[in-house]
Amino acid sequence: MASNSSVPFFSGAVSLRRQWPEVSALVRQAAAAGTFVSDRLVVALEEQVARYTGARNAIACNNATDALALMLRAAGIGPGDEVIVPAYSFFATASCVVHVGAEPVFVDVHPQSYALDPEAVRAAIGPRTKAVMAVHLFHRTADIAALRALADAHGLALFEDSAEAIGMRVEGRHAGLWGRAGVLSFFPTKTLGALGDAGMVLTDDDELAERVTGLRADTGSLCDEIQAAVLLTRLATLDRDIQRRAELAAHYTRRLAPLAPSVTTPVTAPSGEATEPVWYVYLIESDRRDDLVRYLADHQVGTEVYYPRPLTDQPCFRDLGGARHPVPVAAAAAERAVGLPLFPDLTDEQVDRVCDLIHAFHGGTR
Ligand SMILES: Cc1ncc(COP(=O)(O)O)c(C=O)c1O
């Protein structure tokens, strides 16, 4: 077995040390100019992210939770409207709908992509449905072409919670740009992470962008120059980081695939679409997930349970009429799924240590 040292779920310490000279030079410039919030560095970040993603507009704000609500409000989603959302996602995917006064309608996800199942969406469309919120989780996109076709056929707006999806493209089009608008999160653990909170709205719709910009000012949801300094610096190495994440994910899969069916490794080939996976989270399923998490913690290996319960089981959503549709896939994922350590500074030896432990646990040789 590889060394006994601990393996954190996430660490950006090494890359931060490496990039600190550039980051601190930018921060010093901003401080000398007396510009701290939503100024030159933020504008530069917006331009560079727009270039990277191909978006006509990239509007930086406080975080993706805000970005989601700004996007919906700017598009006129509000009281009386229903928005179809997946039952398996981060809380903000659905809370943004409530935030603008509309009603989330939860439907099930696909067992391989963990994203909206187009058939479940079709079955949930009703007279008050105004929009569909596609979410791209972990390493791959939703079946976004099918969701786009479905939304178009029913005259619905398509939005994307692409908070986790920087770098993910389908048929060359970046996540977040398949519908009216999408978002990015720059939370520190994300593929492109800040040193604190930051987020963005992406849209090709200029009018919507203008309304988002107005609402951003009204709500004070601003991005500060320090986060922009970090993000501008890290954007320059993003593709290299994405490549390293892919190598680490391939290493995990090589080591863990033989443990099937007790352990399920992520599926990368999405139903015939030309997609580019980006390994934000390496998610496995285990038939003894909670015991495995405890065993790894006992051996100083960090994990993260994504997501511990379907959104329909959140008390705040239970009474909103959201649990109208069965969500067995979301429920099973909430019991079985767990994210393993994955960040560009992770070493192959650390991956081997995690895999050795999972083999010991599932093979009964611990
Ligand atoms: C799918 C999804 N949506 C929304 C968010 C919210 O992002 P933020 O933390 O920037 O508010 C996250 C981030 O955790 C996420 O993973």
Mind explaining what this structure looks like?
- This protein is an alpha/beta fold.
- The chain has two domains: 15-235, Aspartate Aminotransferase, domain 2, CATH 3.40.640; 238-363, Alpha-Beta Complex (Aspartate Aminotransferase, domain 1), CATH 3.90.1150.
- The protein is 42% helix and 15% strand.
- It has 13 helices and 13 strands.
- The chain has helices spanning 13-33, 40-53, 64-74, 92-99, 118-124, 144-153, 206-219, 225-235, 238-256, 289-298, 315-318, 328-336, 348-363; strands at residues 57-61, 82-86, 103-107, 129-135, 157-161, 169-170, 173-174, 181-185, 199-203, 263-264, 275-276, 282-286, 337-340.
- A seven-stranded mixed beta sheet has the order 1-9-8-5-4-2-3, with helices on both faces.
- Helix 3 (64-74) packs across helix 7 (206-219).
- The longest helix is centred in the N-terminal third of the chain and has 21 residues, at 13-33.
- The protein is globular.
- The mean pLDDT is 93.
- The structure holds pyridoxal-5'-phosphate (PLP).
- The site of pyridoxal-5'-phosphate has 14 residues, from helix 3 and helix 4.
- Pyridoxal-5'-phosphate (PLP) binds next to helix 3 and helix 4.
